[in-house]
Design brief:
The protein is mainly β. It folds into two domains: 76 residues, SH3 type barrels (Roll), CATH 2.30.30.30; 28 residues, no CATH class. It is elongated. The protein starts with 14 loop residues before the first strand and ends in a 12-residue tail after the last strand. The N terminus is likely disordered. Bound molecules: zinc ion.
């Protein structure tokens, strides 16, 4: 894992708000993180339709709705305390663990994901 991973602060389970692009202003939960692409997949956002051809199981074919990747620079983590998108900082706990904190209010944001 190289330097690219260092820039990824968003984690699976985070609530994020999209700050640019066609889904701007919408919020959702991070389903997957792609560190090598600096991208995330967010629940029910950036939906694209994939047409499936009819086959023996599904004789009519149809349209699958899938979540597309969103670049991490287009999303911000939403703080559960402020209820607003925020930049994240880091706090080192006495046991040496790193806690991600909201830069607005200083509250840890990770507890909500457990
Ligand atoms: Zn906050």
């Amino acid at each position: 894992m190289g330097a690219a991973v260092m820039n990824i602060r968003v984690r699976k389970g985070d609530l994020v708000r999209v700050i640019s692009g066609k889904e701007k202003g919408k919020e959702g939960k991070v389903l997957r993180v792609f560190p090598e692409k600096a991208a995330v997949v967010v629940e029910r956002l950036n939906i694209y339709k994939k047409h499936t051809k009819p086959n023996q199981k599904n004789t009519r074919g149809g349209v699958l709705e899938l979540e597309g990747k969103i670049h991490v620079s287009n999303v911000m983590v939403v703080c559960g305390q402020c209820n607003r998108p925020t930049r994240l900082g880091a706090k080192i706990l006495s046991d040496g663990k790193k806690l991600r904190v909201c830069k607005r209010c200083g509250e840890g944001i990770d507890h909500e994901n457990r």
